[in-house]
């Protein structure tokens, strides 16, 4: 029997959710024995365009053209797409910039204060283009499962991943939600 394929990536955010995945300790090793891991920031395993992914996991919010492309590519290549953490679910901390005047913030950071870019706002075409608003993953692509929390607990992540890998529909019990 072929192994289930798993790929994870992180967009804009703190990477705390992937750190919670590491908190699964030995249970993470059990999961990794059941899957063919195609790409993940927790292992530095990178396949630029993993094909045929059963479960794709995206942590973080969509904040620029590069993260938007990562979300679209993951959706296109994954049978099931999971939004991991509050940033992926509703924008979280990265979305705080949605309430700022970006032009004024960049002006202050790069022009009005001493900086390493010699008094101009970087405009290198190689840099990702900042989106006007940070978005949750489901504002860009359809999401099949959500794991909320900042970060969600290792137990919650484990229970959802185990169910998904078995082909079951996961349900996060209210007591596992970190909203109390």
Main attributes of the structure:
Rossmann fold; 6 helices; 7 strands; 180 residues; elongated
Q: What does this entry look like structurally?
A:
- There is one protein chain.
- By secondary structure, this protein is an alpha/beta fold.
- The protein has one domain: Rossmann fold (3-Layer(aba) Sandwich), CATH 3.40.50.
- 32% of the residues lie in helices and 21% in strands.
- It contains 6 helices and 7 strands, in the order E-H-H-E-E-E-H-E-H-H-E-E-H.
- Strands 2-1-3-5-7 form a 5-stranded parallel beta sheet, with helices on both faces. A two-stranded antiparallel ribbon has the order 4-6.
- Helix 2 (26-34) packs parallel to helix 6 (154-165).
- It is elongated and about 55 Å long.
- The mean pLDDT is 85.
Shape: elongated
Q: What is the CATH architecture annotation?
A: 3-Layer(aba) Sandwich
Helix percentage:
25-40%
CATH superfamily label:
NADH:ubiquinone oxidoreductase-like, 20kDa subunit
Strand content: 15-25%
Provide mean pLDDT, rounded. Answer: 85
Q: Give the termini distance in whole angstroms.
A: 41 Å
Q: Identify the CATH class.
A: Alpha Beta
Point out poorly predicted stretches.
Answer: none
Strand order of the largest sheet: 2-1-3-5-7
Please describe the biggest sheet, giving its number of strands, its sense, and whether it closes into a barrel.
5 strands, parallel
Would you list the SSEs in sequence order as H and E?
EHHEEEHEHHEEH
Number of E-state strands: 7
User: CATH topology, what is it called?
Assistant: Rossmann fold
Structural class: alpha/beta
Number of domains: 1
Please report the number of helical segments: 6
Radius of gyration: 18 Å
């Amino acid at each position: 029997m072929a192994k289930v394929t798993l790929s994870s990536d992180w967009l804009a955010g703190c990477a705390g959710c992937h750190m919670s995945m590491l908190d699964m300790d030995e249970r993470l090793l059990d999961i990794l024995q059941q899957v063919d891991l195609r790409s993940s920031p927790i292992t530095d395993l990178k396949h630029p365009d993993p094909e045929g992914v059963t479960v794709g996991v995206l942590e973080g919010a969509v904040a620029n053209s590069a993260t938007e492309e990562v979300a679209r590519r993951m959706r296109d290549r994954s049978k099931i797409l999971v939004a991991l953490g509050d940033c992926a679910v509703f924008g979280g901390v990265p979305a705080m910039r949605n309430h700022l005047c970006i032009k004024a913030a960049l002006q202050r950071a790069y022009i009005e204060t001493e900086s390493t870019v010699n008094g101009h706002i970087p405009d290198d075409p190689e840099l990702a283009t900042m989106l006007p608003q940070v978005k949750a993953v489901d504002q860009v692509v359809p999401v099949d499962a959500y794991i909320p929390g900042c970060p969600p607990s290792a137990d919650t992540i484990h229970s959802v991943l185990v169910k998904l890998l078995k082909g079951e529909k996961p349900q996060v019990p209210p007591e596992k939600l970190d909203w109390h």
